[in-house]
Amino acid sequence: MLRRFAAVSLFSFGIAVSANAADVPSGEAAFTSYIQTKLQLYSPQPVNLVGPLNLTVGAPTSAVSLPSLKPVHDLCVASPSKCDGAVNDYVQNVTREFLQNPARPSAWTGQTQLVVCNRTTRKVQLASIYVPVSDTQWRSTGWMPLDPGTCRGILQSTRPVFYARAEDAVRSAMHDSNIRGGMTEGDVTIANAGGDTMLCVPHVGDWDDRADTLDNLCKSNREPTKFRTFHEDGKPMQIWNLES
């Protein structure tokens, strides 16, 4: 196994995005799969494995070949001390030039994916409210778990506005909505867990609701709480970092 991969900093997003610490495999097939998994975190289109050290992005009929992994794999094998930097550079460059470049038709078709990265030390749960692709109704869903140091896509939409919220996954200390304004004990240590818009969630249990309006998503078993508002910005992906 090669050196431990500690983090990927995607400066093309203007922010640092933490990745899971994991051993980088040395075999060509396993190395290719490893990079595929890393890239898929930041791609609204499928990243496809087409052979050892070869990846594409997009639907099968319009997939675009990504730069060969051979140079970075060869460097990792020959100089393990340089592997972290090589992998980091490859992910940054491919994300900027292929996955986030609106000039490439296969990279963005008006569809935005929201990816949440948990940079805290605790497991969190995520709620989202959005209009799904090819749908006309609002969807409210949660809770989706997210472990520390990991990222996951939580919604895809073609609409200009969508919403998300994070809460501490430990549900033992329930909130009092009259005192804390809809936040659990753990939320006060997540810097940007909530936001600017008052919507609704159940703080215990999972749900998946649909309605014609945001107001209709607030049912009798839902409690008012703050969500963060996100706006489509002409890119295929937005990254939301949760930090302590």
Secondary structure: elements and pairs:
Layout: E1 4-5, E2 22-23, H1 28-40, E3 47-51, E4 54-57, E5 64-65, H2 70-78, H3 83-99, E6 112-118, E7 124-130, E8 138-146, E9 151-157, E10 161-168, H4 177-180, E11 197-201, E12 207-211, E13 223-231, E14 237-242
Parallel strand pairs: 6-14
Antiparallel strand pairs: 1-2, 3-4, 4-5, 6-9, 7-8, 7-10, 8-12, 10-13, 11-13
Characteristic key phrases:
32% strand; Immunoglobulin-like; 2 domains; 244 residues; six-stranded antiparallel β-sheet; 18% helix; disordered N terminus; three-stranded antiparallel β-sheet; alpha+beta
Average pLDDT rating? 76
Give the topology string: H per helix, E per strand.
EEHEEEHHEEEEEHEEEE
Tell me the strand order in the biggest sheet: 11-13-10-7-8-12
Number of helices: 4
Give the structural class.
alpha+beta
CATH architecture of the largest domain: Sandwich
Fraction of residues in helices? 10-25%
Q: Alpha-carbon distance between the termini?
A: 32 Å
Give the CATH level 1 class of the largest domain: Mainly Beta
Radius of gyration: 19 Å
- Tell the overall outline: elongated
Largest sheet: 6 strands, antiparallel
CATH fold-level name of the largest domain: Immunoglobulin-like
